[in-house]
């Protein structure tokens, strides 16, 4: 390979479109480049097209138009098994009657690899995911987290270039989900593979991703590092979907997003008039530990709107706000991020 040439993208989607027989496009001409060795999360509400996108990359769903490139190779019409991708599913899809070892070795058996060789490779991979000592157990004798590790080892045995994960944590209870999330991230970095992970949870995506891709109605609303997307949401949809933001309408026209923790709140002084900001009335006071979340029914340039304000606990203690108290809300100009008009 030419050393001067830039590394190809792990995956490149070019004007990728999927139209089911039922009508409008489930995925509508998306362009996306995913860097090699990165953890990419496809994120969005139910029905936004994220699973369809993943299934097209995997080769489990046909493409209506557009192209899918894997390391510059056009794989759009290749069968799933020839692509260099592997998929890990929500329910893990392990064979219940096979041991962990045989589950992991299964695809090698299908390829005709000799028994001793496939068992050695499967055992190696199980050791890597700290499951070597449980390789003789069947899935029913393993915890959810252990089953997930077996599922990962099984996906990796085909030596994929890209691992595709479809809601891999949603079958786990909340505590285990956070633990396995950290493990997924660690494995991805250790293996140096590209992971593409579909989730509807913005919290999960922010915790895991190098790059997150926020989808809505079959299109990409925003693509960037989690801190970029969170700190500079490009559209009203992204600001609302990510949470933690207020969408405020300005008198000059247009909308801005301001984070809850960047809102300033003050008692409404009797002589308050003019100046920047908006006024409102406190409707909720919720103690959340390190901070207090206040709900304010406020009036912005578009009329009545609900605003959330996060006040650090100590600040609230030194000047508490009470229900029905009139308040003045403001924000630094640098904390107000202009939003593009919502798509029709
Ligand atoms: N096999 C199918 N036939 C017809 N329409 C489909 C099919 N699969 C998905 N769709 C439609 O395509 C759109 C996108 O679906 P997709 O499963 O990609 O969304 P998603 O974002 O992954 O949602 P979820 O989080 O609910 O899985 C939806 O409107 C869905 O109803």
Question: What is the element layout, followed by pairings?
Answer:
Elements: E1 11-19, E2 25-34, E3 39-43, H1 50-58, E4 65-70, E5 73-74, E6 85-88, H2 100-110, H3 115-128, H4 144-156, E7 162-166, H5 174-191, E8 194-199, H6 202-208, E9 211-216, E10 219-224, H7 226-231, H8 236-242, E11 245-249, E12 255-259, E13 264-267, E14 278-287, E15 291-300, E16 303-312, H9 313-318, E17 326-330, E18 337-339
Helix pairs in contact: 2-3, 2-4, 3-4
The protein binds adenosine-5'-triphosphate.
Looking at CATH, the homologous superfamily of the largest domain is P-loop containing nucleotide triphosphate hydrolases
Work out the strand percent: 25-35%
User: Major sheet, described briefly?
Assistant: 6 strands, mixed
What is the succession of H and E elements? Answer: EEEHEEEHHHEHEHEEHHEEEEEEHEE
Number of strand elements: 18
Structural classification = alpha+beta
Helix fraction, binned, reads 25-40%
- Global Rg: 24 Å
Output the CATH class name of the largest domain.
Alpha Beta
Overall CATH architecture of the largest domain? 3-Layer(aba) Sandwich
Q: Write down the CATH topology of the largest domain.
A: Rossmann fold
Q: Which molecules other than protein and nucleic acid are bound?
A: adenosine-5'-triphosphate
Unreliable spans are: none
C-alpha termini separation: 46 Å
């Amino acid at each position: 390979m030419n050393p001067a040439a830039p590394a190809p993208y792990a995956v490149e989607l070019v004007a990728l479109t999927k139209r089911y027989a039922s009508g409008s496009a489930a995925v509508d001409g998306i362009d996306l480049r995913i860097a090699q060795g990165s953890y990419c999360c496809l994120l969005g509400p139910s029905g936004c097209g994220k699973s369809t996108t993943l299934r097209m990359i995997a080769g489990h769903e046909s493409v209506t138009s557009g192209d899918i490139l894997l390391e510059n190779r056009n794989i759009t019409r290749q069968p799933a098994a020839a692509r260099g991708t592997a998929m890990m599913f929500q329910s893990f899809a392990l064979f219940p009657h096979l041991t962990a070892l045989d589950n992991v070795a299964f695809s090698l058996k299908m390829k005709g690899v000799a028994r001793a060789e496939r068992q050695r490779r499967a055992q190696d991979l199980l050791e890597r995911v700290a499951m070597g000592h449980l390789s003789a157990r069947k899935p029913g004798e393993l915890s959810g987290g252990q089953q997930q590790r077996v599922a990962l080892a099984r996906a990796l045995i085909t030596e994929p270039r890209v691992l595709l994960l479809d809601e891999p944590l949603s079958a786990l209870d909340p505590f285990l989900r956070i633990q396995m999330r950290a493990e997924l991230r660690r494995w991805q970095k250790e293996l140096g593979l590209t992971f593409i992970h579909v989730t509807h949870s913005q919290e999960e995506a922010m915790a895991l991703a190098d790059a997150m891709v926020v989808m809505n109605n079959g299109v990409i609303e925003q693509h960037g590092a989690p801190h970029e997307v969170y700190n500079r949401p490009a559209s009203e949809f992204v600001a609302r979907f990510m949470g933690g933001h207020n969408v405020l309408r300005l008198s000059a026209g247009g909308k801005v997003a301001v984070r809850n923790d960047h809102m300033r709140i003050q008692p409404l002084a009797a002589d308050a008039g003019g100046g920047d900001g908006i006024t409102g009335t406190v409707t909720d006071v919720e103690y959340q530990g390190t901070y207090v979340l206040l709900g304010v029914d406020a009036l912005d340039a578009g009329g009545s709107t609900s605003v959330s304000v996060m006040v650090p606990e100590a600040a609230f203690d030194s000047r508490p706000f009470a229900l029905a108290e009139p308040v003045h809300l403001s924000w630094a100009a640098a904390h107000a991020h202009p939003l593009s008009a919502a798509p029709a």
